[in-house]
Structure prediction request, 193 residues.
Amino acid sequence: MLKAELRKQMLRQRRALPREEVQQRSMRIAEMFFRHFPLRPGQTVHVFLPIIKNNEVNTWLIIERLRQEHPEVRVAVPVTDVEQNILTHHHLTDEAVLIENNWGIPEPQDAHIIHADEVDVVLVPLLAFDKAGHRVGYGKGFYDRFLDDCRPDVLKVGLSLEPPVERIADPNPFDVPLDAVVMPQGVWRREEA
Prediction:
C-alpha cells in the first residue's frame, strides 16, 4: 500500500479507537519495552510526547517508569523547530514547564539541549510500519532527519498500537528503517538489527 493511503487509513482507524483502548494498549507497549530493552546507567533515551487528540501511544507511562526505576537514565524529548524544519532535543526533568505547540505536542521550555549524537535509544512515533522496518508518520520527515543525525549505533524503536502491514510500497530513499517496533502483542525486530 502507498504511504499516503496508509496514512489516511491508519489515522481514521486510530481516531476510532476508544481512549480506554489506547490506554490499555499503551500500558502493554510500556511493559513490552521494559521487558525486551534493558537499559544501562548513563544512557539517554529519546521519547516523543504524545498528541492526545490523535490517540498516540501514551509515552508518559514509559517516562514515569524511567523516572521511578531508572533515575540514572536521561530522558530527552523533542521540540519542533518549524522554521528550520528540524527537531531539537531537550532534557526532560521533573521541573520542566511544558507548553503545547500548534500540533498539540507538549514541549519543554528552556530545557537543557541534548545533541543527537548523545542519544542511545530513540522511541519513534508512527502510524504504521511494515515487515522491512519502514514506517509511515505524519509525512513531515522530522524523525528521518533526526535519525540521520544520530550515531550509527543508536537503537531505533518504533511504538505501534497496531501490528505491521506486509509492505509499504513507496519508501523514500531518505527513510531510516527501524531496528525494532514495540506493539501491545510483542516486539518486531529487523533481522539484521
